[in-house]
Amino acid sequence: MSLWVDKFRPKTLDDLHYHQSLSARLKSLAASADFPHMLFYGPSGAGKKTRISCTLRQLFGSGVEKLKIDQRVFISPSKRKLEINIVQSNFHIEITPSEAGNYDRVVIQDLLKEIAQTQQVDLNAKHRFKVVVINEADSLSRDAQAALRRTMEKYMSNMRIILCANSTSRLIAPIKSRCLLMRVAAPNPEEMQMVLEHVAKKLKFDLPEEASQQIAEDCGGNMRKALLVFEALKMQSPDLSGSLKIAKPDWETYCHKVADLIVQEQSPARILEVRAKLYELMTHCIPPTIILKTVAERVVERVDEAMKADIMHWAAFYETRMRLGNKKIYHLEAWVVKVMSLYKHFMYNFDMADFE
Amino acid sequence: MAFFQAKSTSTASKHSVDPAHQPWVEKYRPKTIDDVSAQEHTVAVLKKTLVSTNLPHMLFYGPPGTGKTSTILALARQLFGPDNFRNRVLELNASDERGISIVREKIKSFARQTPRAQAVASDGNVYPCPPYKIIILDEADSMTQDAQGALRRIMETYARITRFCLVCNYVTRIIEPLASRCSKFRFTPLDSTSTSSRLSYIASAENIDVDPEVISTLIETSGGDLRRSITYLQSASRLSSSTNPPVPITPHDIQEIAGVVPTASINDFVRTLGISVIEDMDVDGLPTKGKLKGFNAVQKKVKGIMREGYSASQTLSQLHDTIILHPTLPARQKAKCALAFAEADKALCDGADEELWVLEVGLRIHKAVTIS
Ligand SMILES: Nc1ncnc2c1ncn2[C@@H]1O[C@H](COP(=O)(O)OP(=O)(O)O)[C@@H](O)[C@H]1O
Ligand SMILES: [Mg+2]
User: Which residues form the AAA+ ATPase domain (chain A) (predicted)?
Assistant: First the structure.
């Protein structure tokens, strides 16, 4: 039993529901002989990965769906052994550099060299090149990106690279200038509803307009999230009627609780309480940036207009510090203290103004 | 006989790319230094060295896509000709393993083979073929300081029989003792006239119709990086020729390929921040104050832009241009905005969250223009 997100994942470019013109472009590119290196970028859940696998299928046929997973060993410059899982078919290979940690450069270099130097053995292959898909390309280290530059130019004859990233900001210019950029925007609410209805139709049940509207609105352009929510809702209330309560993920509810704690009381004791909760979230592997953003967005919903900008300012400030620093919790905590102090000052001045 | 023929053609095709499918940046890489657009000063100096054949160690620096790699490759080819190129020129770049021990070994064994001059090349031309080898260290700024230090000694050891050419984007990342041994050549972003003529040349060689407006969009979006503008042009031509029937390339295609945020979206954002845009003024004849809607409006706009997938750096750079070049916004307010842009740029380089920083800049601008 696979989840709906996987079960109804489109397989070909024709199956894709939204961004038709993008699909058409990909289709014609795949048919032309000079398929370029590409960079797919856009928010998470917009459908980048799906679009990439549909493109691969368009390029090579259903053979790309026969995947095998290899464990490969790489040797770091300091002679450390790195074992990394590599997903591949006869026509393409997929890597997620974050698995290689600090040694992503070694892995990228070795793999690309190897692919660049081997010929396509399958004589029936539609294209002579193999495709290397690099997931989460925005987390590639600078070193690894530098290693890609000339390789992308030199080995064009038997290799194409497809990069997948949330944003292009963290990629160095020389890489961007070697790729065809493909922006995958998040689907709008109508487009999301269309996908949801398609799933309902496949499963032969009725999806009330209100329910699909509510899901689409709630998931802010994240199609993956919408499908997961949809499946969960259907389990809860099979007829999907009446007022639906879309349950937030636990961590989100928890973040909102933290925000409420901050707004309700500003005291050293409260800081300790909040800190314990932040730790709890982090031990559940919620990325600190997500924690900070979720809490901050909830806090600004609940305070006076005059404070909102400042609160977000400090969120941006401490999030940057967090990236540069080592101890995430310090910076989260610093933000909490800052917000409490802002709040107290604001309330105090407000009270004083009343007396004047 | 036929068997052998078939075989030989198939091996030949294995190693060379069909020129029709070659990326244009490779296909139109300058063959001689005369083909290099702009960079007049550098080209003039190098032409002299071509005559005297006395090459100093060199350091090429400048932004991407300005012709650094092409120039040194062309120069080397003109010095040695096609036959000797391989045994006289060693090209190492960041894609190769460049631990210093490996570099040393490679250079050692390469420099050891004594160069033999050969007057007439197989193509019938005579090449100067001076008695040294050229070692090109491309993308040298990604070498560690230690490696650069070691390189300095290697340069000294083999000074008699080798010339080094270091190529990099940032001259400041090259350690001083190494940089001071080289003649420095600065490559500047290509001016619009050179870019335009090179692009038009390529377009006519490829038999595609390109509107002057498309060329100017290419110039705007590539910021003097010729590699980028050529890639955009090729991508656009692929897309336009692969539709059935083929359609002409439009400036909008180029913007989409370049990841540019549509002007309308940027103007919309600017209005939300409380600044009226030129278009509004045209309509009313008088500058009208944009509608102010406060925090929630700004936050909503930012979320919308992020959802469309535009990158923060691109969005901010367009927003920056709109605001800094704004015809009526007071200088004091612009100055406040400029500070926010600078901070955001640094934060993004440090890997900070994109949404938070676009929002931060938006809110700062909003504040600057509403509270004076
Ligand atoms: N000054 C120039 N004249 C002609 N073509 C250029 C010039 N600069 C860049 N190009 C084009 O851009 C491509 C990349 O140039 P390259 O020399 O590799 O740039 P870089 O400065 O990054 O080393 C070349 O293949 C060529 O097509
Ligand atoms: Mg270069």
Answer: 34-187
